[in-house]
């Protein structure tokens, strides 16, 4: 019956709801904390990346604006370097006649001449007929390299830092300039691989934006641009490739999502496990409460039935004298006293639980208190034809309630007398052991089976209910003793060998 009760309690929907609510609250709290942590990390990383992009964009724009010499393709979409926007840095004709304009404000290179005149221009430069730096062969060679999009005979960009000959190495960038009508008039890039269609698409996307700084995706790459109006009704657009940095942010989101899902799965099972453990004390308390109510009802039911039966007998013999009905009256009185003792013990246990924090404590002589109990109980032990041996170490003291410790000793000794076998022996010892004060009460007898040992201190629990009832017990004595011992910051335990001996041990802090 006890197993059925435990099973029904474990399946109680109340505890399932309690566990589920605890689980939901726990997971919700974890999700909120994880979301805040991940969002904070992402925001910090996002701001840092955007800050780096902004600095790179500003420095790249400053490089193009300061008139550095990055390579470029000039023209409104034709890519020809010979329009009116540039000067005749190598102005040769088909016959090889011409001169170089050193005061030109254009940024064209010395190799921008037609194919027929290129060699003559080079010869003119080599013979010193050109003026200024535009006439030097070294300058012309550098111009050829830049115009062809190559550096030192390769496509590798220069390794200069910002403020030298172009944007930083890690930045893929280009510049476009438009006139007042928005038409493309000039392009400039570090690499010659960008097509005119690409420039046109990039410009269209940038012009769609109503902001001076923005970003867009083109041909699978992410570009960030800056629009800078000039005083001469032209507008310069500077673009840098930010694909790798945007991929970092995207990878960070995917990582957070994967880690978050994995952690939620793991935390779900952990939370479920700890939720079950958390409600276990509540379930156990609920089980004990149900068991307590059932046992108390049973203990009260029997004396009430006896009183009711005897009262019926008295009523049936109403003409009889009180003396002739004395037997029934004594039965009623006996059961009434039994009920009074039961309710008194229950009230005492309740008061013990409620008054633990406010218990008045004082140091008293424990040895003297236990010895007085032995002297008091000697007559009872002798009447039961039992032998009593006790060994009490003198001078042991304890901080607490003397009356309650005396009550614990009486309970243990009374329990030993009740369950000792005929002509059995009772041993009591009080001594200091391992920094503690140990009170041990042993008796020979039937002993207690191992399966009953964990529950001997439960209220109303009795290993042999019929025998206990005949001896006037309710199963509350050991529960009271345990409550008193715990109130004095001690512990109580029991060891038993079936058919031989049972020992109750109480340990108090010295």
Folded structure, characterized:
The strands form four sheets. The protein has a six-stranded antiparallel beta sheet with strand order 1-5-4-8-7-6, with helices on both faces. It has a five-stranded mixed beta sheet with strand order 10-12-13-15-14. 22% of the residues are buried. With 510 residues, the protein is an alpha+beta fold. The chain has helices at residues 2-10, 13-65, 118-126, 137-147, 196-208, 243-316, 326-354, 366-383, 402-419, 465-470, 477-487; strands at residues 72-74, 91-92, 98-99, 173-178, 184-189, 213-218, 221-229, 235-241, 362-365, 387-392, 397-400, 425-433, 436-444, 491-497, 501-509. The chain contains eleven helices and 15 strands. Helix content is 49%, strand content 17%.
Characteristics of this structure?
510 residues, alpha+beta, Heat Shock Protein 90, six-stranded antiparallel β-sheet, five-stranded mixed β-sheet, 11 helices, 17% strand, disordered N terminus
- Summarize the helix and strand pattern as letters: HHEEEHHEEHEEEHHEHEEHEEHHEE
What strand line-up does the widest sheet have?
A: 1-5-4-8-7-6
Largest sheet: 6 strands, antiparallel
Distance between the termini: 43 Å
Helix content: 40-55%
How many DSSP E strands? 15
Strand composition percent? 15-25%
Secondary structural class: alpha+beta
Note poorly predicted spans.
1-10, 69-170
Helical segment count: 11
Mean pLDDT value: 75
- Morphology call: elongated
**Oligomeric state, counting identical vs distinct chains:** single chain
**How many structural domains can be distinguished in the coordinates?**
2
Rounded to an integer in angstroms, the radius of gyration calculated over CA atoms is 51 Å
């Amino acid at each position: 019956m006890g197993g059925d009760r435990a099973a029904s309690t474990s399946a109680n929907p109340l505890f399932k709801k309690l566990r589920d609510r605890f689980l939901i609250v726990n997971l919700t709290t974890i999700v909120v904390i994880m979301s805040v942590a991940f969002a904070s990390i992402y925001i910090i990383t996002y701001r840092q990346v955007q800050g780096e992009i902004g600095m790179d964009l500003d420095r790249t724009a400053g490089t193009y604006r300061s008139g550095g010499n990055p390579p470029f393709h000039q023209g409104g979409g034709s890519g020809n370097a010979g329009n009116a926007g540039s000067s005749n840095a190598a102005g040769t004709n088909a016959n090889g006649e011409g001169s170089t304009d050193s005061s030109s404000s254009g940024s064209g290179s010395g190799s921008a001449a037609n194919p027929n005149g290129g060699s003559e221009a080079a010869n003119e430069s080599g013979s010193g007929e050109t003026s200024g730096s535009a006439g030097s062969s070294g300058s012309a060679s550098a111009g050829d390299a830049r115009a062809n999009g190559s550096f030192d005979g390769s496509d590798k960009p220069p390794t200069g830092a910002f403020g030298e000959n172009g944007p930083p190495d890690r930045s893929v960038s280009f510049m476009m300039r438009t006139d007042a009508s928005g038409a493309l008039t000039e392009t400039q890039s570090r690499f010659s691989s960008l097509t005119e269609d690409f420039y046109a698409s990039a410009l269209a996307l940038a012009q769609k934006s109503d902001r001076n700084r923005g970003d867009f995706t083109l041909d699978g790459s992410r570009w960030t641009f800056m629009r800078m109006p000039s005083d001469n009704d032209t507008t310069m657009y500077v673009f840098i490739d930010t694909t790798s940095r945007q991929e970092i942010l995207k990878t960070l989101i995917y990582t957070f999502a994967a880690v978050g899902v994995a952690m939620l799965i793991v935390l779900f099972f952990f939370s479920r496990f700890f939720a079950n453990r958390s409600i276990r004390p509540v379930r156990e308390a609920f089980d004990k409460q149900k068991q307590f109510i059932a046992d108390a009802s049973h203990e009260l039911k029997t004396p009430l039935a006896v009183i009711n039966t005897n009262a019926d007998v008295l009523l049936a013999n109403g003409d009889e004298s009180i003396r002739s009905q004395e037997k029934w009256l004594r039965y009623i009185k006996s059961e009434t006293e039994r009920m009074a003792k039961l309710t008194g013990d229950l009230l005492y246990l309740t008061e013990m639980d409620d008054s633990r924090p406010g218990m008045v404590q004082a140091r008293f002589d424990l040895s003297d208190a236990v010895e007085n109990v032995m002297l008091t109980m000697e007559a009872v032990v002798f009447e039961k034809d039992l032998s009593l041996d006790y060994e009490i170490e003198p001078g042991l003291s304890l901080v607490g309630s003397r009356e309650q410790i005396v009550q614990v000793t009486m309970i243990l000794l009374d329990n030993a007398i009740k369950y000792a076998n005929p002509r059995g022996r009772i041993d009591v010892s009080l001594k200091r052991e391992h920094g503690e004060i140990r009170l041990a009460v042993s008796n020979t007898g039937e002993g207690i089976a191992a399966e009953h040992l964990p529950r001997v201190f439960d209220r109303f629990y009795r290993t042999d209910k019929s025998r206990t009832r005949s001896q006037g017990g309710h199963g509350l004595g050991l529960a009271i003793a345990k409550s008193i011992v715990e109130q004095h910051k001690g512990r109580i335990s029991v060891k038993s060998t079936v058919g031989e001996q049972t020992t109750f041990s109480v340990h108090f802090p010295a």
